[in-house]
Write a structure and sequence with these properties.
The chain folds into two domains: 1-55, no CATH class; 99-293, TATA-Binding Protein. 40% of the residues lie in helices and 12% in strands. The chain has helices spanning 22-52, 58-61, 80-84, 94-108, 121-126, 203-221, 248-261, 277-297, 306-316; strands at 63-68, 76-79, 115-117, 152-159, 162-169, 189-193, 234-235, 303-304. The strands form two sheets. A five-stranded mixed sheet has the order 3-4-5-6-7. Strands 2-1-8 form a three-stranded antiparallel sheet. Mean pLDDT is 81; it is low at 1-5, 9-17, 35-52 and 306-317.
């Protein structure tokens, strides 16, 4: 039977009054865009599993297959269930995104010292209403690194169930002005790489980023700089777009990787033919191959999550 739902404001938890809320409308539009891919695939898998009498083995899904980079405090622990998301038509989660960001940072970037790579945690925090932007705890997210000395600040974003990439260019060169800077070759801006540009709104995203930078500058520099839409404008390069409802995370990673190969702040230096769609199609296989290679280098030993091991012990007792 056809289990694909008719997505409306009401059955996704929104009311008619929400129709004037840009952020909630973004969620609604993204759900509309994704529904064919998600539910068609889920029905196909569900039907196949039921017909075979298959049962999910959660013990295998919770196996840690790789901890990388090894011997570091902020290493990413990849589970068997994470690797399953590298199959076609699956949505990448923050674990896969964070892993590959670290791989780009440590293995692929030709000159990583001019870039600062945030993980997916940052945007989650700065987009929360309860985040205290006056607290010195903001410094914890960057440690001893002065990100304002970097040419590029790279921020992965998940907004309204959709992955996209923001890159802040030359924040230290921001001018304090209420007018659009008339300086020739003015470099400070936020480049927004979005593989589904016609569906997502950017106003909230850039507001959160500017608010964070303003607060961090005040805490770390003991002076006031107001990052705003005039002195740190958003620029949207013309870039390749996804043709399905599941590859936004893959596009994010490919945007990031291609950018670090040749960083540039000019938004008009990017084109729709920046890369071929085949490169995105193959990227899932490439990431999986990299994980398997790194796993082999570490001896290929799989570990259970601590909670699972404890549960198993308790059951035996």
């Amino acid at each position: 039977c056809d289990m694909k739902p008719n997505i409306t404001l009401k059955n996704v938890g929104l009311c008619e009054a929400d129709s004037d809320s840009p952020e909630k409308q973004d969620i609604f539009k993204v759900l509309q865009f994704y529904k064919n891919t998600i539910f068609t695939k889920q029905n196909r898998v569900r039907t196949r599993s039921i017909s075979r009498g298959e049962k999910r083995d959660f013990s295998k899904e919770n196996k840690i297959v790789l901890v990388w980079p090894p011997d570091t405090k902020d290493a990413v622990s990849l589970l068997q269930s994470d690797l399953a998301l590298l199959q076609p038509e699956e949505f990448l989660n923050d674990n896969i995104i964070d892993f590959y960001i670290k791989y780009i940072r440590f293995r692929l970037s030709s000159d990583p010292e001019n870039c600062y790579f945030f993980n997916t945690f940052l945007y989650k925090m700065i987009s929360r209403k309860q985040t205290d932007f006056e607290s010195r705890s903001l410094i914890r997210w960057t440690g001893n690194v002065d990100i304002f000395e970097k040419d590029y600040i790279i921020i992965p974003i998940n907004q309204s169930l959709h992955w996209l990439l923001a890159i802040v260019c030359f924040p230290r060169e921001v001018l304090q002005t209420d007018e659009v800077p008339l300086v020739e070759n003015y470099r400070p801006n936020i480049l927004l790489f979005d593989s589904m540009a016609s569906y997502s709104s950017t106003r909230k995203i850039t507001q959160h980023i500017r608010k964070y930078l303003t607060a961090l500058w005040k805490i770390t520099k003991n002076s006031a700089v107001d990052f705003n839409c005039k002195n740190l404008p958003v620029k949207k390069p013309k870039i390749p777009q996804q043709s399905n409802g599941s590859d936004c995370g893959v596009f994010l990673l490919h945007f990031m990787e291609k950018f670090t190969e040749k960083p540039r702040w000019e938004y008009d230096k990017f084109e729709l033919d920046w890369f071929l769609e085949d490169e995105v199609t193959e990227k899932r296989k490439q990431i999986l191959s990299i994980i398997e290679r790194l796993k082999a280098e570490q001896g290929g030993e799989e570990k259970e999550l601590e909670s699972d091991a404890k549960d198993e012990k308790d059951n035996k007792e």
